[in-house]
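Response to reviewer comment R2.3. The reviewers asked that we include at least one raw input/output pair. We reproduce the pair for gibberellin 2beta-dioxygenase here without editing.
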Amino acid sequence: MEALELPLIDLNGLKSEDEREKTRCEDAIAKASSEWGFFQVVNHGVSLELLGKMRREQMKLFKAPFEIKATCGLLNNSYRWGNSTATCPKQFSWSEAFHIPLTKISEATCYGEFTTLREVMMEYATSMQDLAKSLAGVLVRKLGHKDSEIRENCNESTCFLRLNHYPACEISQEIFGLVPHTDSDFLTILDQDEVGGLQLMKDFKWVAVKPNHNALIVNIGDLFQAWSNDVYKSVEHKVMANGKKERFSIAYFLCPSYDSLIGSCKEPSVYKKFTFGEYRYQIQQDVKLIGHKVGLSRFLL
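Raw output as returned:
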C-alpha cells in the first residue's frame, strides 16, 4: 500500500509577530483541512515530556489484568474491548480503549490503584483542549466567522479523551484495529506511537500514514464538515492491526454539548440543521440496526 506523509504544519507561525507568516500558517491549516481532512503539527505547545509521561501511564494501565480494567468505576466505567455490535469480522475492531468524558478525569475515585495517572491526564487534557480550540478558531475565522461560539460550546464539560491499545494480532493482517469510520466531533487530535497502522481515504483509495513521533495528527470531524458546508472534509479512516507489534494512541475529541445546534456557516446549506444529540442518536441507531455508522448523509437536504 502507498504510504504518505500528511501535510506538516509548524504552529510557531500562529504566534509570529509577522502577519504574513501568521497568515501563511492559517492558510496551510485551512488548505489541509479542505484537501486532506488530516494534517500533522509540530511546535504545538504540548511538551514532549508530558506526552512521554502520558504514554507511560497509558501503557501501565493497559498492561493490567482484564478483570482490573473492566472493574466498575475505573475511569468512569469506560473500558471497552472490541465492539459488541459486530456481527461479522469486517465490523470488529481488534482493540481496547477507555473513552473518558473530561468531566470525570479530575475525580480521584475514578482511578482505583492507578493514582499517578490522574495528575498527568488532567495536565494532558488541558494542553489538548487549548490546542484544539486554537486550531478550531483558525478554521472558523478562515471562513469569515467569529470563533466564540465553538469556544463557548466545546469545553471540559463536553469533550472526551480516548486511550487506545491495539494488541498484536497474529490471526490475520486483514483484521481491523479500528473499523473504517469518520469522527463525529468538530476535530480530533491524535498522539500515536511509531508502530503505524493508521490509514485514510485519499483520492478514492486507502493510503497508509507514515508515523512521525515528533508530530501530533489533527483530523476534521463530521460537525466541521457540516458547519463549513463541505469546505472542510471529514475523511474516512481506519487502523489495521499489526501481526507482531502492539500499538498505542490517545485521541482528544473536540465536541459541543448535546443540545448544540449545528447549522451551516453560509447558505444555501448542504445539510439540514441538527443538534449534536440528534446526530449521536442517529449514529447509535444505525450501528444497532445495520452494524455501521452512516453519518452526514442522513442529514442531507
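Residues 115-142 form the longest helix (28 residues). Residues 23 and 214 are 24 Å apart (CA to CA). Further pairs are available on request from the corresponding author.
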